Amino acid sequence: MYETTYHRAGSVADAVRMIADAEDGKFLGGGQTLLPTMKQRLAAPSDLVDVTKIPEMKGIREEGGQIVIGAATPHAEVAASDLVKSRLPGLATLAGGIGDPAVRHMGTIGGSIANNDPAADYPAALVGLGATVTTSKRTFSAEDFFIGMFDTALDDDEIVISVSFPAAEKSAYAKYPNPASRYAMAGVFVARHSDGSVRVAVTGAGHYGVFRVDGMEEALASNWSPDAVAGIHVDSGGMLHDVHGSAHYRANLVTVMAKRAVAAAG
Amino acid sequence: MRAVRQVLRQTETGKTGLRRISGTGGTGAFFGRETMAVEGIGARALRKEDKRFITGKGRYTDDIVAPGMGYAAFVRSPHAHARIRSIDSGAASVMPGVDAVLTGDQLVGDGVGNIICGWMIHSKDGSPMKMGGWRALEPEVVRHVGQAVAVVIADTLAQARDAADAVVVDYEELPSVTNAVAALGPDAPQIHPEAEGNLIFDWEIGDEAAVNAAFENAAHVTRMNIQNNRVVPNPMEPRAALADYNSAEEHFTLYTTSQNPHVARLVLSAFYNIAPEHKLRVIAPDVGGGFGAKIYIYPEEMVCLWASKRVNRPVKWACDRTEAFLTDAHGRDHESEAELALDSDNKIIGLRVKTVANLGAYMSLFSSSVPTYLYATLLSGQYNIPAIHANVKAVYTNTTPVDAYRGAGRPEATYLIERMMETAAREVGLSPAEFRRRNFVRSFPHQTPVIMCYDAGDYDATLDAALSAADYDGFAARKAEAASRGKLRGIGLSCYIEACGIAPSAAVGSLGAGVGLWESAEVRVNPVGTIEILTGSHSHGQGHETTFSQLICERFGIDSDSVAIVHGDTDKVQFGMGTYGSRSGAVGMSAIVKALDKVEAKAKKIAAHLMEASEGDIQIEGGELKVAGTDKKLSFTEVALAAYTAHNLPEGMEPGLKEGAFYDPTNFTFPAGTYVCEVEIDPETGKTEIVNFVAADDFGKIINPMIVEGQVHGGLTQGIGQALLESVTYGENGQLLTATYMDYAMPRADDVPSFNLSTHETLCPGNPLGIKGCGEAGAIGSPPAIINAITDAIGNNDLSMPAKPEKVWALYNSTMKQAAE
Lengths: 266, 821
Prior knowledge:
The structure holds two protein chains of two kinds.
Chain A: E1 5-8, H1 12-21, E2 25-28, H2 34-39, E3 47-50, E4 60-63, E5 66-70, H3 75-80, H4 82-87, H5 89-96, H6 101-106, H7 109-115, H8 122-129, E6 132-135, E7 139-141, H9 142-145, E8 146-148, E9 151-152, E10 160-166, E11 170-177, E12 184-192, E13 198-203, E14 211-212, H10 214-222, H11 226-230, H12 247-265
Parallel strand pairs in A: 1-3, 2-3
Antiparallel strand pairs in A: 4-5, 5-10, 6-7, 6-10, 8-9, 11-12, 12-13, 13-14
Chain B: E1 6-9, E2 19-20, E3 30-31, H1 50-54, E4 70-76, E5 82-88, H2 90-93, E6 98-103, H3 104-109, E7 141-142, E8 148-154, H4 157-166, E9 168-173, H5 180-183, E10 199-206, H6 208-216, E11 220-228, E12 240-246, E13 251-256, H7 261-270, E14 280-283, H8 299-311, E15 315-318, H9 321-327, E16 334-342, E17 348-360, E18 388-396, H10 410-428, H11 432-439, E19 446-447, E20 453-454, H12 459-470, H13 475-484, E21 488-497, H14 505-510, E22 519-525, E23 531-535, H15 544-556, E24 563-566, H16 584-610, E25 618-621, E26 624-627, E27 633-635, H17 636-645, E28 658-663, E29 672-681, E30 688-698, H18 705-725, E31 756-762, H19 777-794, H20 805-820
Parallel strand pairs in B: 4-15, 13-14, 17-18, 23-24, 30-31
Antiparallel strand pairs in B: 1-31, 2-3, 4-8, 5-7, 5-9, 6-8, 10-18, 11-16, 12-13, 12-15, 16-17, 19-20, 21-29, 22-23, 22-28, 25-26, 26-27, 29-30
């Protein structure tokens, strides 16, 4: 690891000022991606601004029919939250299946979505549920927030404050993990809202990160059952391929995981 | 000549009831944890070493600090094959904290020797193996990604790494090849000038004419192409070294992660010219796993010693995980063609094997022995095969060197013969169990056509036990039930045999080994009766402090707390060959038993003298020496003290109570057993779940069943890793694509089932305790059982390891498609 200077921000204003003062600063959430990257000498920020101790970025609450999760909330807290488990069971399952226990107790939702790893789990939930991301400057719809692989709409000095999820009638997440890293090779989040609208969001499989599958959404809107998506295949042209699986195989996994997510949602 | 005794013993994890312990000391007493603290042979004694490991008090090489030490960082080749035009260390050498930037030219200039291979193999034409030079820092041509070309020594690790990044190496990239069969092709790049066409040796074993005749008379021939995938050992603790040169004494101390510190000292001294043996102390402190990868004497450890003298300060190096992937010797990597000839009664009449073994870019210490004498000599399996011929071509490629990894040759042999057995059974329409039974060796000793002479075993016993534990007969019902849930269920067998305790020394010497493979031990009884055992074996996870102590507890009836096991330091232990090849029980403990015999004899003489009794009437029991049939007795402590006060010893007896012994086995030992694997495949994803795994092993005498179970669990898990998950993948231009745990899939707890284990004892007649060894069996026997089960489930035999989900999914789909057409 290269030398770096650690700062602990007490407020959002604090954090923004610290980043502005730094030569090449980075916000630090739970550090579950950034710190290993730094240890491998693949990143060398001059300063780290820890935003996990900022009070307004912590905790889970219900607000105007939305479940609002502070950006510094660790995955384990989301997974264990009675509120999340009752209103968005798919989100609780997803958070409880991220990484390993150490990752879940340190890693945060804000850090995860700001990094936008194409195989991370949270982007599927945000897009699948139609969440809103509130930052230190503005709000984004989930789809506007995620731009591409490791890329978001955030400015360099912009911090995610919270994520608001509309409560869904049904939601579930099914993931096929990479056997080595246990990141998603294909993770599918399905949700049905009370107005009958359906979303299907896929992470891990696509070249550009999270994406929606229109054909599956339409099929499920008229027939909410695993069979409705069993025959719907995504184009393998847009799928990732690596030593763990071809694009063709990943496209198959998207269909299989979609089926299983719908079955799990009931 | 049949095995002496057979005990059917279902092991029950965690049970610590009363048990009968057969004594080497002849006491035959009843012991149990509840009734006595003395835990002898057969007790499930908890591990003495675990307190320090679990509480963070272990002392590993990287924990050790020498005053004023500097840190080493290596400059490594990013290319698989390249000529070095120049190395510019100018900028690096003036960076903060940098002591020196050292290169291969300086290493060669200082007379440091090339890295050796310790086993000479001759090709079938009689020519010696063609070995290219391997320098610890390469000055001219790099031959695999990660090869070291320079080292930086600096005040801190960060400074060393910064400076290593600043060393500018100008490379002329050369064409490279990573696949061994491709490396033998006419257009392959030449890797070493010494080995034309990259062929190191073209070796054979067995009677080719007899095999040809068998095939001419065969009623059925089974043919297969069989690959054994390359894997990375991945001990939990990566390699590390701390080299400390004392210029006043011209003496080196090396702390290092070694399975065999004395062998390291011998090689460093005799071949690398670091220092004469009496000026070089090698200490292998707590070592966190080895699996073979820590047998060898690698460039980095040697460079630390050399650099320590160059910069006149201690030098520390600790490997990071990616460096370990790039430089720890890999395992396996065979491609074979195999043919099995059967007569009309489905008895095997011949086996023909042609194997291409990938040895990587350089010949590591025992690399040549692994695909030859540790492999082809086990191709007979548990079967009576009258004629075997094997041809092995060993090949250089632009990959990390390959050497022994848990099992070392024996897993490759077992995988080949057990895949062949299952396939042949399917082809001739016999149950795989029945086909094996029809061909079992049943009379001992059994001389195979490939050197080995099996001494004892009962292959029917382990097969019967495994089939029964697995409810083999009930499989069809379970398969139907799984199908109702949409799952494909399959079952597979593996009846493995392996050879441990590699020796006798004269025999291995005649086969080309550069060392003898005996072991030494010293038993030091202190004046107050506590005992230190100095052993040449080395524990890096095996639990020797516990199991070796159990021998002493058994013999003298004393508490385990009164015994200390000393190992891993060339200044303390006179000499030893270390631990690998499941040899510490069969060979290391046998040396201790021999030394204990001498101590016991002397103690009895002293006791007899003191109690005015006949030596033959002295019995040792519960920590006391008693005169049989009387109430006369002395405590072990009193006898020890008498030996050291020397006030009243028998006429002419030397004072003291300390004895040493060397033990050279008379034969290999032959652990064997049957493994049954049952899997369920998800046809939609191809993912395999192992739903049941039965292991019925014959390890001979078992000292500590709990530790044996741990060894089997670990071995099976590594076998499952090889069969399902682990896959070293080289990409274009010889880049290692799987050099982190993000891409290299190691087995985790949820990849393995709760194992169903049992042991079935036939004693090894070749050593005093009857031990066969248990360290590698799991890794040797399990891969074929798993692949046999998966191919059974999907109805397609064309499966190579690792059985990644996509591969299984595609094979199943193609089978279904063919069936539909």
